[in-house]
Structures are given as structure tokens and as C-alpha cells.
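Researcher: Structure prediction, please.
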Amino acid sequence: MDSAAAAAAEEEGREKPPVIYTMENKPIVTCAGDQNLFTSLYPTLSQQLPREPMEWRRSYGRAPKMIHLESNFVQFKEELLPKEGNKALLTFPFLHIYWTECCDTEVYKTTVKDDITKWQNVLKAHNSVDWLIVVVESDAKKKNKTNILPRTSIVDKIRNDFCNKQSDRCVVLSDPLKDSSRSQESWNAFLTKLRTLLLMSFTKNLGKFEDDMRTLREKRTEPGWSFCEYFMVQEELAFVFEMLQQFEDALVQYDELDALFSQYVVNFGAGDGANWLTFFCQPVRSWNGLILRKPIDMEKRELIQNQEATLLDLRSYLFSRQCTLLIFLQRPWEVSQRALELLHNCVQELKLLENKYMDPSKSLKVSVPPGALDCWVFLSCLEVLQRIEGCCDRAQIDANVSHTVGLWSYATEKLKSLGYLCGLVSEKGPNSEDLNRTVDLLAGLGAERPETANASQSPYKKLKEALSSVEAFEKHYLDLSHATIEMYTNIGRIRSAKLVGKDLAEFYMRKKGPQKAEVYLQGALKTYLAEGWALLVTHTRKQLAECQKHLGQIENYLQTSSLLAGDSLLTEDERRSFCQEILDFANQQAENQGQKVILPMHSFAQLKTLHFDPPNAVVHVGGKLSIELTLLSQMPIPVQVDQIAIHVHFSIEKNSYRKTAEWLTKHKTSNGVISFPYEIAGFPLSRNNLPALELYEMYERSPSDNSLNTAGIICKNVHMLLRRQESSSSLDMPSGVTLEDGAHVLKCNNLILEPGVNKIIFNTQAKEPGTYTLRQLCTSVGKVQFVLLHIYPIVQYDVYSQEPQLKVEPMTDSLLAGIPQKVKFTVTTGHYTMKNGDTLQLSNADAMPILYHPESKAAIYSNTREKISESSLRIQSSEKITSISLPVAPAYHVIEFELEVMYLPSATEAAVEKENTTSKEDHRKNKEKQKQDNCMATVDQKVTIDCPWSIYSTIIALTFCIPFNAKHSLLSAGKRKYLQVCVQNLSELCFQLSDNSLKNSADCTDLQLVPLNPESQQVIYSKQSIFFVWELKWTKELPLSLQCLFSVSFCPATSKEPSLTLKPFTYEFQVENFFTLYHVKTEIFPPLGAEYCKTGSLCSLEVSITRLVDLSEVDRDEALTESDGYCTTKLMYEVVDNSSNWAVCGKSSGVISMPVAARATHKVHMEVMPLFAGYLPFPDVRLFKYLPHHSAHSMQLDADSWIENDNLSVDKNVDDQADSSSIRSRGSLHSAASGEHKGLPMPRLQSFSSGQVFNCSTGMQILVIPSKDDHVLEVNIT
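Model: Predicted structure follows.
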């Protein structure tokens, strides 16, 4: 193994970066034959061989790699061939080459052949099969020889003699020293063959070596297996990979050795020991750190090879090799990462081996002097850092501080340990024992290594200087600490920076510098509080308390002591000690100290719950309120408390008129218990303790077109998430905060707070109405006051002063007129006290009498709805006033009682809505609304009440609903007339009807109303109707209109008081023009010769209009024409088939002149065609009065011209007639399509009143049979 080490040059004390060493070994290739020939070709060969890369394919599926081959060409000697059992790869010849330029047959036979034979026999004796014969041909030699055989004859002989089965093992190199294309081609072929054979030899021999190594590793469980021997074998493989410039593969070998050794140490700690570990369990006598400035530490390698290395020696050598390879791979930051892991693992492994015995009989164990590991770690950290600085520039180092800061921190920690161990941090300095320990530690470092002897800042010099004096140690420790804190801060690792700062604070406390220590302790405490590290917070607070005590910061010290006294992570004795510190200060005399000290409450006690009595926290003026606090004392011992006070803020809101007792009760919590969130003493709300986000969608739309303008998310509990948190690290009270020592303070004196839960009750009496907000809670212990600055969530109680009120409300959803209904009277006394003799004076109304029951009671309730008493209700009634005596009741109570009232509607109130309607359009809308809503008519009845607490009268309006709705209709049968009255029950109750009657308001003796109704009682159910019918009979001519009055008695069907007399329901209406003037008859005849009408055949339709009476007052209108005592009137008829069963052929309407005389008849004939088969109803025949136009200047058209025009354009003045739409539509079509009548005065049509026209054919049907040629049969069934 050829290892070259170059020393670093020094220039006048100035340091230069260390030289990076590498392996000088190359694969060995032996050369036999003509040495002079090879010597002449060597320069070209060594230069051309590594120029082209070759693909190296390896076994076990490993990825192929491109490598550049170099070789160390040496003269062939038998001693170079490996002997049996030799596993060294670096001295192994991978290829053997025989060189010759023989071109003479005789020479070949006499010397060359024998020489090749001897050469091959030696190779065969050593089982070496990797060889190559190179024949060099030269044109110059060929010209000098006369008896030369043809070309390649010597080559052929060599191939026949030695390469029968491997002809490729003999190659020809033509004119290698000439610069020609033929020579270059020959060189290329030769170099390719050489590289191929070398790779084949590498692959074969390395594979065999790996198999042997794997076999050796599998024997590790056998007795006598040595890790050191195996280490040297696998390192040999690593050397070969490094020799081939395959640094990654070489690094893998060392990583496997590292993992194997680590696993054995772990197993050893678990009790599964290996005998070979005995060699590493030697006492540690040297701790000079890692050696990284040369590629191979031969001294430690020899120790491993001789099985004399300690654990630190093995780890140091192994890491130095890994470091060298990582530097070659340009991964210096991985060096720092691995170094940190190595240092921590070594410390743990040595502690593990130190406590275990390999051989109980020999009692062998690892012995590590105190401080030795700290020295080794410190030196190693600085060595790694300087090694990285040597191969990187400053910009790279600054950009990768995150990789190296761990080593700086570890070095700082170990230097601190050495300082404490050697007495360099104590107040009095090191003693003799400390000095002896320091000398021993420096002796274990040994002499400084030559490669760092001239460096002024070598790790060895730094450590030796730091341990030499107190001042030097302080300088080095502070420099390292500040540099580490700065690096941690720059990369954002604040926790680690605070941890180093905490160690620095401890150092300052040892050096009597509390001012400097406080800054670091406060910073560390703030970080631990924000992140919730409870144990670290406790430990830091203990240090901070000591620091504050030395600085004389009384308030801060007391607050920290209160936090520690309530800290469950401390022992009981420690907690009592800190609590006693507070009590001792609190019990000092006032003259010895200044003003009182105000501290936060959360460290002393926590407010858990608050309970109001009454629960709704609403009380009237003069009422009593109780507040029960539940306090959780954090102190470990009972504490005598001078006073606990609640400071209350009083306010009168602008809308205080709304704060009645009822309103407050609805808007307050019912249980009266308010819980407060639990917080660990001294910890602000961390992110984990914050409430969940209450997010809601928010949309904003345009007011014009309702389009979406913006969409967003709103947080409804932002006051909980962003409310101000009291920082426990800020020990001073917020500036400007004072206690509210006003008139509204609730106090409780001389208490003892026991550890844990305590209940304190405050009692108060309400004096002034308004809202009282609990702002602060203050606990006074001597000169110390613990204050809860803000009680949150907000806690309030309300005091109200209420005016007396009277409320009258029905007991049901609606009051029904005509029957007794219960009404509830509620008197809220407010601040008024009901005295004996106080009464309610109700003004009587004829339409609404008040029904009195002697058993009526009045109940008295408190303002919390608790029933107090009940007394009989006394009522006195006169003609105009009903007096109700109220029971005696105190202020802020409620009196309730019930009375029965009955509203008696007048005869016309049931039809108020209809009678008041003057417009026909309004009447139509009201009818439609009544059909849609089907609701009852309502009547408001006002009552005036005089109350004893007011000089003003109170007007109460009660709304009554009429339960019935009535409507009438006129029915005709020829000249006979009938009146029908429909009574509809709109309420939810069932009624019993009796004694129905219909009377003529004019008391006409010539008119008789004959009832056709049963005389028995009838039940009308909810939402149902009953019809009553009377026949009109008269003896002489009656007036044009009749005024009728319908009445019917009713009572609830389930009434238990049949003796109660109720006023009947009445309905008044008027009937006009009810006499029959015309009789219309329709007949349909089949075609001549046919017995039945057929579909598609024309049939004859005859309409007969007959006048039944002579001239009367109702006929005197614009259509009447008198001539010589002969009166006629114009009528218009119209045939309409709304069911589309008939097709009217020809004119469907026309105007006729009708004589005004009894029995006068006019007949109209037309043709119709049935469209369907079956019993078809007759078409409708309608009759109208034909009135001329009102315009005096209009030209009157001849009647015949109108009759001839079937599409008559008229303006029909018809009120709510559904059939008028067809005429209107035809008129509009004609006027739009034809302009010949444009601008002419239009006649008008007027419909007859109900009963004036009787159509006797209404409802008649005629049989229509289908035609014989119809393939599809359509039958109409009606």
C-alpha cells in the first residue's frame, strides 16, 4: 500500500488551508518479455489509457458506472503473484502482459516461445488466468529481414501455440511509435482490449473478494471471530473503490462498518455481548480528539490492526476516513452533521461500556477519567469546524450556518462542563484538587500534532489556554456562547438560542452578575411560556426568582414567588417556602414599607364560577341580590385574607326604557351560573387552548338588481381570539391601571382561603336602577393585593324600576262574537303597592257585557313567577261601570285573574263589509279576497279602564271575530220564485242552529214567505255550510225590490249552559227585479226523414222567446219604443256552446224587436251540427237588452243592418258575467279586422237581472248517434 502524505507549507506564521490527501495506489499490471520495448511505449500507454471512460457493470443488480482506468505497470516477478490466503487487493496484479516485437521465425522458436511458455507456467501455478500477449510490428524491421514470413505469421504461431481457445488474448500493435492513421487505429483497438480485460479482472476479483468478505461477516456469531480482522478486510475493499475514484462506494463500506459496530455496542448494552469487544474495553488514556488533516491516520490504523485500539481510537479513525471521502464528494456539510451524531453516540457508548462488564472474572470495564470525554468532544468539534473552513470559503460557511451551529453549541456546552469541573467558575477560583484535575486532563491531550503545531488557533491551543486561568476560560466561553447565540438567532432557531442564553445566565449568576443573567432568563422564560414548556418554565422561574432577589426587585420577586408557590411541578416544601416569602412581606409593618404591592390574581387564585341569586341576575329596586364566587386557591397552605372585594361599574343605558322586568327576564340566562376558563398559572392562552374559529359566509348584494357584489368570511368570535393576553413574562403591572375604589364595591372581610376550592358569598341590596358590571376582583393579604384586572366573560346584573302595567289578552287565539269568551287580566304592580280598596273601573258597553262568576279567583305571583297567594275576586256592576276590587299585593308582584265577556253584534254588522262597498270593482276584489282567505270578519270593541295608580284612563281594544258568513241567491221555476240563504261556519267550533226565520222588512201583507226547511235543530260543523230555502208567494203586484231580514239562533254544540240566552245571528239583504219577464225554450230537430241526430249532419235549432207579462216599470228604459199604444223593445240573443259539442252554422246571434205584451212570442231558427255522439247538452241561449248609444249626434243604424252582421261589435255593460268574454272577443276581432264601422257610435248590451229570464231548456240533452262511415267512434258522456 503506497500512501503519500504531503506536509502543509507555512509562511511566516500565517496559516494556509490544509492539503487534501488522496490515495496514490493504482491497479497493478505486470509486464514480461521485452522490457525495452515496453519502456519505449510506456509514456503513450499511460497517457492514453485513462482518456476514455468505460462502463463498469457489476453483479447483484448494482447500477453501472462510467470509470476512467489507470494502472501501475511494473516488471513481472513471481513474488508479485498472490499466495494462497492473501486477500490484499491493493497489491494484487489484475492483469499480466507479455511484450514482444519478434518478427523472425528462428528467433521465435529458439527464445521467445520458450520465454512465453515459462511465463504462462508461472501464471498457471498461481491460478492466474488474466493475461495478454502483445505483438508489436514495425515496418523497419521487416525491411531488414530477408527470410521474413508473410505478415501475421508470428502472430498466428503465438495464437496456435498459446491461444487456441482464447484468440483474443493475442493482439497486434502496428507501428506504435509512428503518427499515422494505421498506428492510431491499432492503438485504439489495443487500448479497448486492455480496458476490457482490466474491467473483467476487476469484476471477477472484486466479486470473489466480496463473496469472501460476506462469508467472513456471516461467521460473526462464531467464537473467535474478530471485528478488527473483518474491519481490515472491508477497508481493503474501500481502498480499491477509492483507488478507482469511486468514493461513494468506498463511503458505503465505512458506513457498513460503522453500523455493524454500533449494533454490537447496542446489543452489548442489552446483555448480548461479543468476546471481541474486550479489545475495546480498555481504559481511556488519550483524548486528543479527531485527526482530520491527513487522509489516513496510520497510527490508529495499526492499533486497530493489532487489536490494541480503544473505542475512541476506532471511532476517530472511522470518522476520519468518512470525512476524507465526503470532502472528495464535495459534501462538507454532511461532515458536520455526521460529526455531531458521532460525538453524541461516542459519549453514550462509553457510558454504556463503562457500566457493563465483559468478563466478570477479570472485571474488565471501560475507565474514563472525569472530563476526558468533554476534552475529546471539544477538540473534535473545533477540528471538524476548522476542517470544513479549510475547504469552503467564507460566503459558503455563512450561508450554511445551520449545518455547523450544532457543533458550536456542543463545544460551548463541553467547555462549560470543563470550567465547572476544574473550578474555573467558582467564586474563589480553582483549588488544589481542581488544579490536579486540570493537569491530568492536559496530560491526556498529549503533544500537539505536527500538522497543527504552527497554527495559532488550533483546537489544542484553544483548550489548553481556556483551562490555564479563570480569565482565559471566561473569555473563550463567552466568545463561544455569544457566537452560538448569534448563529442560532440568524437561522431562526430561537429555542436553541434561548437555551444557550439560559446556560449563560447560570454562568453569570455564578460570577455574581445577576443584571446580565436576568436578560437571558427573561428571554428564555418568554419563549417557554409562549410554547407551553411547563417544566422549563418552572426551572427558569426558580432561577429568575433568585436573580430578582439579588437585585432587590421586590414586586417582581413576589410575583415570581406567587407563581412558584402555585406550581404543581415543584415539591410541597419548595411551594411552602415561596408562599412563606409572600406572607412574610405581607405581614411587615406599614411604616417599614411603602405603598401596597399589586400583583396579578391568576398566580394566587383563579376564579372558577360565579352564581347569581336570583338566577336571572335581575332584581328590582330595594330587592336583594346574592353573588357566590368559587375561587381555586393556588397556595399550598391556608392564607388569611383581610378582604375580598368586587369592584362594580354602574351605568344607565340610553334605551333603559326597554329594561322592564319581562324584557330582562327574556334576555338573561336562566341558571345564573357563569363559568370562567381555566388557565394554568402563569401561562397565557396558547394556540391549543384558543377557541375554535366561528366562521360564517358573508354576501353583499347590489340593492338595484340584487346581483352579488362581494363575498367573504366573517369571524364572529374575534373578540375571543384577539383579546389582550396578560404576558406572564412582563412582571410589572400595566402602566396607568388603578383599582376602581368607588361607591359600588362588594366586600367580604376576614376570610381564610384554604388550598383548593373556596366559596365566598357577597350580599347586596339594589338601590338605583341600571346595569352593574363586575369589573375587577381584589384580594388583600396585608400589604399585598392580588388583582384580577378584567373579569371575563363580562358579568352583569340589572336593577330595574318598573311602572305599574295592565294587560288584557284573550285566552284563545281569537275572540268569537256572540258567545262568552274568557279574557285574562294581568296587573304588574311595579313600584306601586296595591292597597285595600284599589279597584279597576271598566266602562260598560251595550254590545259587550261582562259576565261575572262568583267563584272567580285572583292569583298573586312574585316577579320570579312564584305563586304567593290566591283570593276571591269581587266585582260590582252598575249601568255604566263595572268595578273590580284588586287584592292587596306588595310592589313588584303580578296579579292575574280571568273574566268572561260576550260581544253582541248588531243586525247589520255581519254585512258591514258588503254594504260599505260602493264600487263594483272593489266588490269583485273583496269577493276574490274572501274566497282566497276565507277568513272571518272582525270588529274592534274598545273598553276604557281607570287604574288606581294613574289619573289617566287606559283604553283596551278587543278584537272579536264574526263566526258566520251568510249569502243569498234567487231561484226561479217559471214564474215561481224561491229565496235561498247559505250560512257558513268560518270558526273552529261547532254550533247548534235553531229558530231560523226570514221576514220582509216592509211587512207587506200581499207577500208570503213559505219556509221549506225542517223545524228541528241543526248542527253546523267547522268550515261547513247550511242552506235555508223559502218560496215567495204574492197576490198582487209587488214593488221592484224587497228588503229581507234573516235570523237564526245559535249556541256552541258543546255548551254546558243551555239556559244562557244568546242573541241570534242576523243577515239583512235586498232582492230587486225578481219577476220573470221572458221564457226561453230551445228545441233541436233531426234532419228530415231521420229519427235521430247524427254526428256531422246538420240539425235544426229553434229558439222560442215568449213574453210573460205586460208592460211594467222595469221595461221603461232606452230600448222601449211606443207607437200608437203599441210598445216594443229590442233584445239580442246569442247561442253559445262552451263545451264545444256543437258547431253553430250561420249566425249565432242577432237582434230582435219584441212586443211588450203578455204571451208575445218570437222564434229564431238556425242550423247546428253535432260534433260527438252520445247525449249532448243543448247549447246555451243568452238574452240581453239592446240599448242604443247615448250620443245625440250619432247616426242611428238600421236594425236590419245589425241583424245581418253576425260579428256584432258591441260594448256590453255586464257586471261579473263570465259568458260576456266571448262577445267581447268577437267584437274586438271585428273592429280590428274591419274598418267600415270605425268611428260609428256603438250600441250597448245590458244583461237582465237574476230571475227575469227563465230558460226551460237548461240541462236538457238530446241523443246523437254516430255516422255509419266513421272509423273512429267518439262518444260524449255528460
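Model: The first strand starts at residue 28 and ends at 33.
Researcher: Thanks, that helps.
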